[in-house]
Specification:
about 190 residues; alpha+beta; Alpha-D-Glucose-1,6-Bisphosphate, Chain A, domain 4; 8-stranded antiparallel sheet; 8 strands; about 25% helix
Length: about 190
């Protein structure tokens, strides 16, 4: 669905309830947890260092909990502050061409370990593409904090297939902007 303005959460609620009852649109489930590329999909990977130290790591974890990795000038998640739990369904709006495009995703796994935190979500029928995306922060033994996006996707909706080169450019822009949005906020 396309909008001139982002609908309110109340306006999005019925969509999320309906999407929450549907199955994901791709396989393999948990494919971003695999070390291999997923055949038949575009496979994307970006890893950037965002700082050093436990305080930076804690801040980066909070950024993910708050969905700050979504660049606010052209993306939005509803409900805002959706909890990072398996099964949570969200609407992801992306702005392109002056319009807001609505997509639906479900959190399919969460990583919450002493040195790694993040989650992967997968596409539902209300998404223009099909695939899975992982958002992960890690602290290594040297104390460096890394932010990783790993995804596999392909167009599902006819407009995404026609606009495939534009979709790939937007995905690359998202990865870059997401890395910039993860700059740690240190109190």
């Amino acid at each position: 669905m396309v909008y001139l303005h982002i609908p309110s959460f109340q306006q999005t609620k019925a969509f999320l309830l309906a999407q929450g009852q549907l199955d994901i649109t791709y396989s393999p489930l948990n494919g971003t947890a695999l070390s291999t590329k997923i055949n038949g999909y575009d496979n994307d990977f970006q890893r950037v260092m965002i700082g050093n130290g436990q305080q930076v790591f804690e801040s980066a974890k909070q950024n993910i909990r708050d969905w700050r990795m979504f660049p606010s000038h052209w993306t939005k998640i509803l409900p805002e502050q959706a909890p990072i739990v398996v099964g949570e369904t969200v609407a992801m709006y992306a702005r392109f061409g002056g319009l807001w495009w609505r997509n639906s995703c479900r959190i399919i796994y969460v990583i919450d370990e002493s040195t790694r935190f993040g989650f992967a979500y997968g596409t539902l029928p209300g998404h223009v593409e099909c695939g899975e995306e992982l958002f992960l922060v890690e602290i290594d033994t040297a104390g460096d904090v890394w932010y990783t996006i790993k995804a596999f996707s392909k167009p599902r909706f006819w407009m995404a297939r026609i606009g495939y080169p534009i979709m790939r450019l937007l995905q690359a822009k998202f990865r870059k902007d997401s890395g910039n949005a993860m700059d740690p906020i240190i109190p």
